[in-house]
């Protein structure tokens, strides 16, 4: 039983072929297809309003130089948001519960922000490794600590997203299993756990949205440090 709780996090496959790519491309079907008109329905109006809101929120901490990243950051935010929300549906697979995928998203983007800073302002970027006014005996230790904290950023991004989504899915499965098990023996307690399950599901919807926003927001803050 303990092992079966983690079966939902195993990558699905059909005839030995992993279906992760299909799960990753499925959110694109929910986006409006381009047409002759900008606004074709109320749904497209709502989607455009949401994309505009997300873009404004992500570009708030950035100056004009960082606005070149608007398309990448907004696309990543919508991608993570849709995948996280679709993963809450029954009998679905959430690719963002895989640490390998999250690291594959975090590391290249973090490296791009770092290389951008080293190319445009190398002195300022390297200056972050040594705070101003540091005593001379502490310089080697501080450089080592700041370098470690810099290199661990993509790992922290991936682990944070994976841990939060994995914990939420496990809690939902545990409480739903308890609800079904108690339905025949203790109906009153089963109704209570069902209420807890409903509230937890609402919480997980909020967590799915917040974690997608935090992931992209931290990338935008890393970008701001280097531009």
Automatic annotation (TrEMBL):
Catalyzed reactions per annotation: H(+)(in) = H(+)(out)
Entry similarity comment: Belongs to the ATPase A chain family.
Quaternary organization: Component of the ATP synthase complex composed at least of ATP5F1A/subunit alpha, ATP5F1B/subunit beta, ATP5MC1/subunit c (homooctomer), MT-ATP6/subunit a, MT-ATP8/subunit 8, ATP5ME/subunit e, ATP5MF/subunit f, ATP5MG/subunit g, ATP5MK/subunit k, ATP5MJ/subunit j, ATP5F1C/subunit gamma, ATP5F1D/subunit delta, ATP5F1E/subunit epsilon, ATP5PF/subunit F6, ATP5PB/subunit b, ATP5PD/subunit d, ATP5PO/subunit OSCP.
UniProtKB keywords: ATP synthesis, CF(0), Hydrogen ion transport, Ion transport, Membrane, Mitochondrion, Mitochondrion inner membrane, Transmembrane, Transmembrane helix, Transport
InterPro entries per UniProt: ATP_synth_F0_asu, ATP_synth_F0_asu_AS, ATP_synth_F0_asu_bact/mt, F0_ATP_A_sf
Listed transmembrane segments: 12-31, 71-92, 99-118, 138-159, 171-199, 205-223
Gene Ontology cellular component terms for the protein in this record: mitochondrial inner membrane; proton-transporting ATP synthase complex
Molecular function via GO: proton-transporting ATP synthase activity, rotational mechanism
The protein's name in its UniProt record: ATP synthase subunit a
CDD domains: ATP-synt_Fo_a_6
Membrane topology according to the record: Multi-pass membrane protein
Coiled coil location: none
Lineage: Eukaryota, Metazoa, Chordata, Craniata, Vertebrata
Localization, UniProt: Mitochondrion inner membrane
Lipid metabolism among keywords: no
Keyword Ribosomal protein: no
